[in-house]
User: What shape does this take?
Amino acid sequence: MLTDITAARDGALADIEVAATLDDIAALTSRLLGKKGDLAQIKTRLGQLESIDEKKSAGQAINDAMSAVSSALDDRRAVLAADALSARVEAERLDLTEYVGKPTRGHAHLVTQAWERLEDVFIGLGFQVAEGPEVETDWHNFEALNMGEGHPARGEFDTLFVDHVTPDGKVGTTLLRTHTSPVQIRTMIESEPPIYIVAPGRVFRRDTPDATHMPVFHQIEGLVIDRDITMADLAGTIEAFTKAFFGSDFTSRLRPSYFPFTEPSAEFDIQRPDGSWIELGGCGMVHPNVLRAGGLDPEEWSGFAFGFGIDRMAKERHGVEDIRDMYTNDIRFLEQFS
Ligand code: DAH
Assistant: This one.
């Protein structure tokens, strides 16, 4: 009987050894350890043995064989379970890396670079940086800048209005600012002269994008308020800025023009070393009505203001042909301005 037990055990262990899946193990477990298993069958024959000693040692041998088979099943089950897990993990693995050649460093957008350099240059000329909200009141954007209701100049600003109901139920006149000039008003109201500020920021107009227009663009506004400020201070500041920003071989000129918020008004152009001109922006002496709207006495204070488009300036400076290229975020375009 002992030989039968050994044979049954070894056969079972050999089967377990070659089990390839967890299902195989499950089948083997019931076959080898169940009532119909070889060892269980041998056990039923114990009664046929003559002596107590023989029964004892055969019973002991069957128990030992059973636990050897049982722990072999456990071991094999553990190995197959670990294999199954790593196979599943491997199958479900996602390759999230993308090889794009050598890693590249990002850089600020062309317009951001221009914006930051403008701030640096004006800070160098003694200006401070101011800002105002992009959603403005009609009063700050037009009225206080000497463009009352019905003023024809309002028509030149294709304004985007914002539906807005004030807490007391009135329909407010709120809009997306069409220029950075309302920051002049806010600065005059909020601070005491002397004032030397520039205000770069985002502005909005109801324009269809084309090679020279975007409905969202950027301007920088300048405002100086002090005693005895003259047109000569304005011209000198524009010239100093031109040389500091563009280079010492660039110059500037003022051309008579009209803006409601300045009197007299001018447009200013920058001349490249090759003699060609860049039309940059508008400027002038702050209109007395604007000083009054800002809470200042025009008899005591005078000042000048200027404003120009940052995107347009960057476009001119770098010879970008279509302003839309600056906003489509094509990496091949952007990379040229690192
Ligand atoms: N706000 C004007 C515009 O958007 C630009 C401008 C002109 C600003 C003359 C000024 C100025 O401060 O004095 O067209």
The mean pLDDT is 92. The two ends are 88 Å apart (CA to CA).
